[in-house]
Amino acid sequence: MRRGRGWAGLLLVVAVLITGGAVTVAAYDIVDDGEDRYAGQVMDRYAAELSAAVGDRAARYTETVSDLAAAVGAQSDLRGDDFVRMTATLDGARLPGAAGISFVVAATGPEVPALQRFWRARGASELKLLPATGTSTHDFVVFERTFDSVTNIVGVDLAQRPQAGEALRTAQASGRTAISPAYYLIRDDNLAPGARQTSISFVAPVYSGLGSSAPDVFRGWIVMPVRGQDFVARTLHDRGQGAVQTSLAEGTGAHAVLATAAPGRRVADESLVRQRALTVGQRHWELTLWPTTRLINATDRGMSRFTLAAGAALTVLLCLMTAVLTGSRNRALLQVDQATTALRKDIARREDVEARLREREQELHHLAFHDPLTGLANRLLFYDRLTHAVATRGRTGGRLAVLFIDLDGFKEVNDRLGHNAGDLVLRTVGDRLRTSLRAADTVARFGGDEFAVILEDIESPADARSAAERVIAGVRAPIDVNGEEARVSASIGIAVSDRDSTADDLVGQADAAMYAAKNAGKNRYVAT
C-alpha cells in the first residue's frame, strides 16, 4: 500500500512536469512567432526602400546620358568646344561614382585614318586613335570629360572590353539607354589590383535628325563609366541605417558584386534574408539584405527567451510543490490518529497552492501579451485583437481604423537625460494614449518609441482623425523628469478599413502613412 502511494506521487509529479513543460513551450512558440513576423516585416520594409533608392539612382544616371545624347544629336556639326559646353555642369559631386563622360564613334579598320582627321578638324587636335587588335570593328573615344584624376582615355578603342562593346551594341539595336555587364574600366588598368572597383557603363545612342522629316542617322554613343562601389554604397549604407548589410550584384546566380554595405555584425538567420530583383538599363541586378544585431535588438527579440525561462521556473516550482504535497498526503494516511488534523492542513495547503498557481498563470499570461515597461498590449496581443476585429467587421459590416504612432524627439530625450528618463517618457506617453482614447480601444507598444492603436466601431474616417488629433495634443504636452522638462511629439499614420482589408494591409498602410507624416514635418497625422 505504501509502495503504491509512493508510485502514485511520482506519477503526479511527472504529470505536472509534462503539463507545465507543454504550456511553457506553447507560450514560447507563440511569442517567438510574433517576434519573427515583426522582424520579417521590418526586413521587407528595408528591402522595398533600398530597391526603390537604387532604382532612382540608376534612373537619374540613365536620364543624364539620355539628355546628353539628345543634345549631341541636335548638333549639326559637333565640335570639341560644343561637347565641353554641354558637359560643363556634370561632375563627380552630382554623379557619385562616375569616372567621366565620353562621346564614342564606331569605325572599321580602313576608316580609322579618315576618322582621325575628321575629328581632329573638329576640336580634338591631339586625337590619336589606338585600334585594338583582333577585332574588325572599333569603338573610339573622341571627346571626354573626366571627373577624377585617373588618366583619360581619348583615342582608346573600347572594343578591347567585350562588356563595354555589348552595351554599345544593345543601345544601338534598341535605340534606348543600356547598361553594360560588370567589368574593370580601361582607365583603371594602371591602378593596383586592390584599388580597382567592379564597374559598369551607362550607354545612350546618339542620333541626328530626331524631330525632323529626314531619316534618323546613327552617329555614335554617349558613354558614362561608373565605379560600382562609389555608385550606390553610400545610398545602401544610409538607407539601411546600420540595421542591415546589403549587396548589389549584377545578374543572378554566379554574378559580380557591384557594391556592398556591411555595417555591424550579421545575424545568421536565413528566414530574414531578403532578395529583390531590379531591371535597369536592359540589365538585371539583384539586391540582397541580411539582418544585423542592431535590427534584432530593436525588435525586442528577447521576450520569447524570457517567456521560456519564466515558464520553466514556474514548472519546476509546481513540481516541487506537488512533491511536497504528495509526501504530506502519504504521511497523513500513515498517521491514522492524526488523520482529521492532517486532512484539514492538506486541504488548506492545496487551496493556497491553487491560488498561487492561478496567480502565476495570470502573471505568465500577462507577460506573454503585454509590454513590461508600459503595461500596454504588445505586438502579439495587438495582432490577435486586430485579426479578430477584422473578422468581426466582415460579419457585422462595421468599420475600424489602425493608428501607427512614432515619437518625434525621443532619441534626443534619451541622449540628453538618459535611458531612465526615456523609460519615464514612454510610460507617460502610454498613460496619455489610454486617456486620449476610448476604453474599448486597444493601445499597444510595438517596441522602442513605436505605438499602435485599434479603433473599433467608428462611424467614419473623421472619427479616426479626431482620435489622432487628441493623441497629438496629449503627447506633445511637456513631461517633468526629475525637475527637467522633456518634450516629444507624435507622427501618426491612419489606415481605415474597407471591405477587403486584412490585418496586415491595415498595419502596412498605417506604417507607410506614419512615414509620410514624418517626411511632411512630424507632429502630425497622415491618413491613407
Automatic annotation (TrEMBL):
Sorted UniProt keywords: Membrane, Transmembrane, Transmembrane helix
Protein location: Membrane
Primary residence: membrane
SMART domains cross-referenced by the UniProt entry: GGDEF
InterPro entries the UniProt entry points to: CHASE_dom, CHASE_sf, DGC-Regulatory_Protein, GGDEF_dom, Nucleotide_cyclase, Rev_trsase/Diguanyl_cyclase
CDD domains documented for this protein: GGDEF
Ranges for domain GGDEF: 398-528
This protein's name: Sensor domain-containing diguanylate cyclase
Organism: Paractinoplanes pyxinae
Claim: Cell division is one of the keywords in the record: no
Residue ranges occupied by any CHASE domain in the UniProt entry: 141-238
UniProt key word Transmembrane: yes
Transmembrane regions: 306-325
